[in-house]
Design brief:
Low-confidence stretches of chain A: none
Radius of gyration of chain B: 18 Å
Number of helices of chain B: 9
Largest sheet of chain B: none
Oligomer: heterodimer
Number of strands of chain B: 0
Low-confidence stretches of chain B: none
Number of helices of chain A: 6
Largest interface: A-B, 25 and 28 residues
Strand content of chain B: under 5%
Mean pLDDT of chain A: 86
Order of helices and strands of chain A: HHHHHH
Distance between the termini of chain B: 23 Å
Mean pLDDT of chain B: 87
């Protein structure tokens, strides 16, 4: 019994059919609890007033935007090395989810920034690197859509994902050099004193867990759809042959 | 490999268009900027390094799909893939030819266009140096993008979309060198980083581009 057994699409479908409802329900519960707790049961911030509450959407989505790309990177590597189709399809399934997470992070950031910084958008390093990440997602998805042969598409997008990761990291530090930041520093690391206070911290943790589970559920669902549509395509081709 | 570079150069010059197109586009961008922003010389002097870098980058982008597309269509690329030269070498040669036909002329034309934008005196040298160091990276990254999209019918737009985020670090450091040069600030840090990016790109991307080409030629 090894992890690689789930590279078999049939096994993957069997397992994911059992896991998916659990993950989906858990994510719904976490999000409901975390968001209600965060929005209605925490005090307003001393300086930011009630605008601080957007943190419960902004921080988890920003984390998942990056984590989704890392997951795509790992899946791409597995596809390039071991040629498991499920892996390539999972990477494909994760890309639009990651892109939407990036958009949520950018949009909530803009909505928060308007009253707080007095501007919707600033060319701050963090904002800029997220915009670049968004462009990477866009290019990745466009490349998937543009190529007809599925294996070629999987190969080329995987290569793009690898090269893109290097350049995304490079851009992250290049923009630091290019402009000083307006965005506050890390407020969730485990060893720092300047973290957000516990009142905000616990609902935020629940929200993060909810977003992780939501991402997992969406990726599982989309991967299942991809596998089914691939199978449908194969069946149709066989029917045409016979 | 040298033969390959020479062959590509000859093709670019003879077929017409490929050679002059980038330069003409560069000229258009730089000439149109004052019309859009007004003729104030102080403003133009401030934005000149950035505009020149941006114009060079866009002009470079314009000719990227020519790197592999024609050879792919007439089957030359299949022959090159079977040739004793490794495909990585072919990619490097192609990128070098692209640089000689676009990057080098752009670098040489930049100071002349800098006069039009009222670029401050000390900026000229640094502009030329930063472009000379940075444009090889643009050609190599572009060759990677072209290798990814070579099999596609209408790959031009997709190519731009793929290459755009990859160009960001090069543009940031290149324009920063030119800008600091123009106002006579110290510029070792961005200059070294720009050189580092170019060397890293030249060392690693031929392998990625060759891998993409092999996939497309399967």
């Amino acid at each position: 019994m090894s992890l690689w057994e789930y590279a078999n699409p049939a096994k993957f479908m069997g397992l994911s059919a059992r896991v998916l409802p659990v993950v989906a329900v858990l994510s719904g519960v976490c999000l409901a609890v975390g968001l209600i707790w965060g929005f209605f049961l925490t005090p307003d911030d001393f300086r930011q007033g009630s605008t601080v509450k957007i943190i419960y959407l902004h921080v988890p989505s920003a984390m998942m935007a990056i984590n989704a790309w890392v997951m795509m990177l790992v899946a791409s590597l597995i596809w390039l090395i071991r040629r498991h189709h499920v892996s390539a399809l999972a990477a494909r399934a994760a890309a639009p989810v990651g892109m939407v997470m990036t958009l949520i992070a950018l949009a909530t950031g803009a909505i928060w920034g308007q009253p707080m910084w007095g501007t919707w958008w600033a060319w701050d390093p963090r904002l800029t690197s997220f915009l670049i990440l968004f462009l990477f997602y866009l290019g990745y998805i466009a490349l998937w859509e543009a190529i007809e042969d599925p294996d070629t598409a999987a190969d080329l997008t995987s290569v793009l994902c690898l090269v893109g990761s290097v350049f995304a990291a490079l851009s992250r530090y290049a923009v630091n050099f290019w402009n000083q930041g307006l965005h506050q520093g890390a407020s969730l690391s485990l060893d720092k004193k300047e973290n957000v206070s516990d009142v905000f911290w616990f609902p935020l943790l629940v929200c993060i867990a909810g977003f992780v589970l939501l991402f997992l559920a969406l990726v599982l669902m989309r991967t299942r759809t991809e596998i089914r549509s691939r199978r449908l395509h194969a069946l149709r081709m066989r029917a045409r042959m016979g | 490999m040298i033969r390959l570079v020479l062959r590509d150069l000859a093709l670019a010059v003879r077929a017409g268009g490929g050679f002059g197109l980038g330069l003409a586009f560069f000229l258009i961008v730089v000439v149109l900027v004052p019309f859009a922003l007004g003729p104030e010389t102080t403003l133009l002097a401030v934005i000149a390094p950035g505009v020149l870098w941006l114009g060079a980058l866009l002009a470079c982008l314009l000719s990227l799909d020519r790197i592999f597309a024609l050879d792919f269509e007439d089957g030359t690329l299949d022959l090159l893939a079977c040739a004793p030269v490794p495909l990585e070498g072919v990619v490097a040669a192609k990128a070098a030819a692209h640089w000689i036909t676009t990057g080098l002329p752009l670098t040489l034309a930049a100071p002349i266009l800098g006069v039009l934008l009222n670029l401050p005196g000390p900026g000229f040298w640094w502009l030329v140096i930063s472009l000379a160091i940075g444009t090889p990276a643009l050609s190599m990254i572009g060759a990677f993008g072209a290798a990814l999209t070579v099999g596609l019918r209408r790959g031009g737009l997709l190519l731009s979309l793929l290459v755009l985020p990859l160009y960001v670090p090069t543009l940031i450091f290149g324009a920063e060198v030119a800008r600091r040069g123009a106002v006579a600030m110290t510029l070792e840090a961005p200059l070294l980083l720009l050189a580092g990016i170019t060397l890293g790109v030249l060392a690693l991307l031929p392998f990625a581009a060759a891998a993409a080409l092999r996939i497309n030629l399967r």
